[in-house]
Amino acid sequence: MTQKLVVIGAGMASGRVLEHLFDAGADYEVTLFNAEARGNYNRIMLSPVLSGEKSYDDIVTHDADWYENHGVTCRFGEHVTAIDRSAKTVTGENGTVPYDKLLIATGSAPFIIPVQGKDLPGVITYRDLDDTNAMIAAAAKGGKAVVIGGGLLGLEAAAGLTERGMEVTVLHLMGHLMERQLDESAGFLLRRDLQNKGVKVICQASTAAILGDRHVEGVMLEDNTGLEADLVVMAVGIRPETRLANDAGLEVARGIEVNAQMQTSDPDILAVGECIEFDGHLFGLVAPLYDQAKVVAKTLMDEPDAFVAKELSTKLKVTGCDLFSAGDFSQGEGREDIVFRDPGRGVYRRLVVEDDVLVGAVMYGDTSDSNWFFGLIRDKTDIAGIRDTLIFGPAYQGGTPLDPLAAVAALPRDAEICGCNGICKGQIEDAIAAGASDLGSVRATTKASGSCGTCTGLVEQVLAVRLGDDFVAPAAASVCGCTDMTHEDVRRMIKSQKLTSMPAVWQECGWKTSCGCHVCRPALNFYLLADWPLEYQDDPQSRFVNERKHANIQKDGTFSVVPRMWGGLTTPNELRAIADAADKYMVPTVKVTGGQRIDLLGVKGEDLPAIWADLNDAGMVSGHAYSKGLRTVKTCVGTDHCRFGTQDSTGLGIKLEKELWGSWTPHKLKLGVSGCPRNCAEATCKDIGIICVDSGYQISIGGAAGMDVRETELLVQVPTQEEALYVIKAVTQLYRENAKYLDRIYKWMGKVGLDWIKERIVDDQDSRADLATRFDLSQSIYRKDPWAEHAQTKVERYQPLATLALEAAE
Ligand SMILES: Cc1cc2nc3c(=O)[nH]c(=O)nc-3n(C[C@H](O)[C@H](O)[C@H](O)COP(=O)(O)OP(=O)(O)OC[C@H]3O[C@@H](n4cnc5c(N)ncnc54)[C@H](O)[C@@H]3O)c2cc1C
Ligand code: SF4
Ligand code: SF4
Asked: What is the CA(681)–ligand 3 centre distance, in A?
């Protein structure tokens, strides 16, 4: 006997269920409700409709004839308001219908962030054709759009609106786009490609309010950034549409709970699609819904079948943004990464392997092999035998790896080797024939590899091919195992290619790991911060533990706390505050450091925020005794009290410390100012030393009194305090912009030579002024007391640590 099947929701899942039922000739009389005033269409093609590549007619999956041919009673545009399980009826806005079997396929509802202004006209979600048409109509007027949410949906909306001529900004709460599907490197490439299309992207952007009177006018972020907007698209997530099921007393967790046969807690009611929860899983992509649809049809025909949740993959439908992500690519113990990067083509591939099985894959730029990789993940294939060539895709399996020199040898003479300088292989060969025998001489004669340096390896290979055994490749140390590039090459790339984030560096410099290691991350963090103070945000996680904790960890796991005493000067009040803090926090040792500061040794980790707060209250800030930055400016008493003093050395020391404090440098930076050549402040063994003389100030650099002991060398003598300050800021900036991370000034000077520094600081007035200006700019952002911030807001981080590291607290 024909049974009555009522379906609520004409979405992608229920459309498939009906196809399977009718194809199998099941004996059902179907009533199909849909809140939308239309039947089934391919929802995932709404983005091509938005961008203008397709029309609604192109994406209809079941037309009026199809419903008629299959005897489906269509109640489109009618919202179902209730299910009565005892009477076995469904009530819509236009009346009630009985059912033998009921299928709930209500999909999801978009999540709306509960901010002021969310209900203003001009704020829309992205879920159905009406939303799409509303966006198309808004875009026809032009103007600015803000898309909240940098996930799949938000980015497709942003790309579509840009195609239609709007000025679009995407706001994303997290550090990189599509963070659930992509790692940071792929996120960087995606962001770059979107920006190239004209989409502006702001990450770590938290929406505080939507502004406007009668219509949306703008968006305000938590950090008080204001953005104008004629249209706001909210695409921050979805949640299963479970209201009807809830009201009907079905079991509902996050979604409507179903068993493997897709039955709800009432066996006559089935559910399918985004509205369900199965075995703790929710579903937001169509592939699993199609599997579910098959099972629903079987269950309705009383045939056995069971739904199994499988691995999923993601792609983005934005032209020019080829991305693929599948499986689990989080880092974890026992997991290894295989990474391939081709900066020139913007290609990135990362495979995550665990126990010889591929468990995750992220690809950007070239996703042609994605299906093959997805198959390996899904089938849990043992990849041990093809591991070496796995990353290159199916075409390379079983092949023999090429001799790298053979490829270079085969290049024609007009093949470009150095793109920046337009140097081809033939020019390099000519230089070699004329006597160039190493990288330096090829660079000097042809300029090849002299700009950003990424072609260095290729130039060396040309040398190796031409000179054979006579060529000895320089053994320049790479930053770490994540890259073959040296610090100098990476710094050059950061500047020349305007790389302003770590993922940008990893990608463009071809890092072999997905996100660096404990060696390269602190160095990159510093380089980016020194070169791009406005664009780059410091990453505390990429700092050594002392810098993260804002205090030195001592060998018993306690901390030493050093407040700043400007120029070595203090006051009775400050001393009282230090003494009170020592009493209150039971500090076992109070010591004067070699840099004339007071060190409170033996403070418990959990007391750090409180002791800082007390010292802050007395007007003191962190002495940065733990930082790769300015530590102290040691002074003598100078003219104020000493009979030999020629200048106010203490006053200059205070001024210098106030100018330089908080600045990050490649290594720790210590200064000394002595009031006369008797040099009581021992200024000539500091990184920068100043000796005051009758005629002015002798500024010398490159001293050391640690593992190496060295005397400073004279940089310049200047007549006034102002000029001394100016020169010291400039030389500090030159050091920040050029030195290798963890090189003290003397080491850096040994590499570049004092003359090179003099040329830029002493001989070239413009260069000196530019450097000082850039130093001031950086200081306008980074001259901050880390104690104050952490004492107020990050108290919970200061729990006892298990790992110990000892560093001198000077
Ligand atoms: C713009 C966009 C792009 C997407 N792109 C992709 C993609 O590239 N790849 C991918 O795999 N997935 C994509 N998705 C997700 C995919 O479309 C969904 O996973 C899929 O449509 C869910 O199917 P469903 O049948 O569960 O729900 P839906 O297709 O959402 O259908 C549910 C229907 O139920 C109706 N309804 C709800 N409540 C009631 C009620 N009380 N009475 C009557 N009717 C009701 C709704 O109006 C709706 O028409 C995209 C989604 C969107 C919005
Ligand atoms: S490496 Fe630099 S020098 Fe060589 S091609 Fe590229 S950008 Fe140019
Ligand atoms: S360096 Fe000269 S001025 Fe300074 S304290 Fe010593 S003797 Fe006095």
From this structure: 8
Tokens, residue 239: 């949640």
pTM over 0.85? The answer is no
Tokens representing 675 are: 């009031």
Ligand 2: atom nearest CA of 459 is 4
511's CB contacts (< 8 A; 6+ apart) are 185, 339, 341, 482, 483, 505, 520
What tokens were used for 778? 């950086």
Q: How far apart are CA 92 and CA 35, in angstroms?
A: 10
What is the reported pLDDT for 556?
A: 80
**Ligand 3 center to residue 678 CA distance, Å?**
6
Task: Judge if the beta carbon of residue 420 lies within 6 A of ligand 2.
Answer: yes
Indicate whether residue 680 lines ligand 3 (CB < 6 A): yes
Kindly tell me if the per-residue pLDDT of 394 is higher than 90: no
Q: State in Å: Cα 108 to ligand 2 middle.
A: 50
Alpha-carbon distance 509 to 513, whole Å? 11
Q: What are phi and psi of 472, to 5 degrees?
A: -115, 115
Alpha-carbon distance of 127 to 46, in angstroms, equals: 9
Q: Is 105 helix (H, G, I), strand (E, B) or coil?
A: coil
Residues 6+ apart with CB under 8 A from 766: none
Please indicate whether residue 637, judged by its CB atom, sits closer than 6 Å to ligand 3: yes
Write the pLDDT tens digit of every residue in 10-43: 999 999 999 999 999 999 999 999 999 999 999 9
The token pair at 112 is 């709306």
Closest atom, ligand 3, to C-alpha of 643: 8
